[in-house]
Amino acid sequence: MAVFSEIYGAYYRIAARAMREKTVTDDEVYELIRSLGFRDSALFLPQKLLPQNDGSDWGLLRRNADGSLSRITENPPPAVLTLLQKRWLKSKLADPRFRLFFDDETLRRLEERLADIKPLYRLEHFRYFDKFTDGDDYADPLYRENFRVILSAIKSRELLKIAYTSGHDKRICFTCLPLNIEYSEKNDKLRVLTRKYRNGRISSGGVINIGRIDAIERTGRFFTGDINAPFTKPRNSVTVYVASERNAVERFLMAFASYEKRADRDLENGGCVVTLHYDKSDETELLIRLLSFGAAVEILSPGELRRQAAERVARQSELTFKNDE
């Protein structure tokens, strides 16, 4: 009899986590079920993981003399990749953005291990009709090196000296604290959010396209102050109503998965009211993405963004009818 319906399903992950440590307590098992399981998992899963007198449990844990639990195996469950996971990973290896996160040696080993695996999909299978074609060159050696330096500095809070060329061809150099990396799907570009550092103090900041960076110098100095409250990125918000037709709610939440948001379901008709938080510099891109959902999405507020959307729709309608003539 199969204990798990598929490898690395929810119950497999819970059991594997419970067996990761040499000993666990009953409370820790209950917490794993609560945090990783489904709403009704607590009704039956504890009886399967915790040892039962009648032997009806799965037999994965044994009770110790001190009341704690230990796994029946000497080692924790191994991390096994399914063929589907290997095929997905082989596809991701072809994505230059994915490769930014790994050094050349790691990429070489992955390619060797997956040499005989057929990719799940190929990049040429996808056509993007709403994306600019002058995206960043993610395969450029300088770009990759700059990305890794920035990523490392974000994790360690190291100050960097950055030299870049602005959109007006002006060369700018300054010392900054990098806070976050963002991806613009519309422009196909990566950007870094920074705060300037001068005379021992953090001041104003901005967003820099990584593709415009000419040089980065590590300073070896690290910022130790409060990195949260003073450096919150200025945010705007837009509230929209998403209708239930043609799985619009699911498609909308997936399309805007990277945005901070709040969603309230309309139980009467299945729609959803969603508030998205965004940076002002991304407003045009956000508006275009909202309009791509057509009549399934209505902008409720703010009024200015609603007005811009109406103007764009009216302009598009005029062009359409003009072409028909």
Description:
With 325 residues, the chain is α+β, with helices and mostly antiparallel strands. The chain has four domains: 62 residues, no CATH class; 43 residues, no CATH class; 91 residues, SH3 type barrels (Roll); 89 residues, Alpha-Beta Plaits. The chain is built from ten helices and twelve strands. The strands form three sheets. Strands 7-6-5-4-8 form a five-stranded antiparallel β-sheet. It has a four-stranded antiparallel β-sheet with strand order 10-11-9-12. A three-stranded antiparallel β-sheet has the order 1-3-2. Helix 1 packs antiparallel against helix 2. It is globular, with a radius of gyration of 26 Å. The termini are far apart. The N terminus is likely disordered.
Secondary structure blueprint with pairings:
Elements (H helix, E strand, L loop, with lengths): L9 H9 L4 E2 L1 H11 L8 H5 L11 E3 L5 E3 L11 H11 L2 H4 L4 H10 L27 H16 L1 E8 L5 E14 L4 E10 L2 E9 L3 E10 L13 E7 L5 H8 L4 E6 L6 E7 L4 H9 L5 E5 L1 H22 L1
